[in-house]
Amino acid sequence: MFFKFLRSVFLVFMITTFILLVDNFLLVRALVISNSMYSTIPTGSRVFGLRATNYQYGDIVVFSSPIPHEFSERFIKRIVAVGGEQIQICEEYSLTIPHGYVFVMGDNRHNSRDSREWGAIPVNSIVGRIYWVLPPLTR
Questions:
Q1: How far apart are the first and last CA of the chain?
Q2: What is the CATH architecture of 30-134?
Q3: pTM for the whole thing?
Q4: Per-residue pLDDT averaged across 43-63, rounded?
Q5: What pLDDT shows up at residue 114?
Q6: Can you name the residues that pair with 62 across neighbouring β-strands?
Q7: Pairwise CA distance, residues 72 & 45, whole Å
Q8: Would you call the peptide bond into 39 cis, given omega within 30 degrees of 0 as the criterion?
Q9: 46, 125 in Cβ contact below 8 A?
């Protein structure tokens, strides 16, 4: 009887450890708190993804705040240019993205704080790529 109890405790411990390891080292999850990605991702949605190391044009990524003195939350934006590419910001201004950096923008261009404000962000500030969106539950 005592060994069955120990076996159950050990099993619960192993499952909990596995879940924590997967959550901390493999999965990415975040809550969308602004409408900068609207209409692709509605405000209040939960997004889920995987940690990755290579990112490309069009990926929706979660990254550490480039303005931590204003916002500590992670940001969610779409990559519109990667290192080595040139991007036209407005008619008279273009920018070449340095290697190891990406240029990100919100899909709601008129209401997004993004690389147009802070410049390209380092790839190592990206936490992961988004694959799943859970829309907010409405009442």
A1: 48
A2: Ribbon (2.10)
A3: 0.84
A4: 94
A5: 95
A6: 76, 128
A7: 18
A8: yes
A9: no
- Predicted local distance difference test score (pLDDT) of residue 45: 95
Which amino acid is it at 89? I
* Distances, alpha carbon 137 to alpha carbons 21, 28, 60, 77, 108, in Å: 28, 20, 22, 22, 21
Question: Residue 51 and residue 17: Cα distance in Å, rounded?
Answer: 19
Is residue 47 within 8 Å of residue 32, measured between CB atoms? yes
d(CA 36, CA 17): 35
Cβ burial of 28 (10 Å; 0-12, 13-18, 19+) is buried
CA gap 101, 83 in Å, rounded: 5
CB-CB neighbours of 56 under 10 Å:
9
Name which of 81, 89, 36, 88 is nearest 55 in CA terms.
81
Q: Please tell me the distance from the alpha carbon of residue 79 to that of residue 13, in angstroms, as a whole number.
A: 39
- Each domain of the chain, given as residue ranges in start order, spans 30-134
Distance CA(100)–CA(85), nearest Å, equals 11
Nearest to 126 by CA among 73, 75, 67: 75
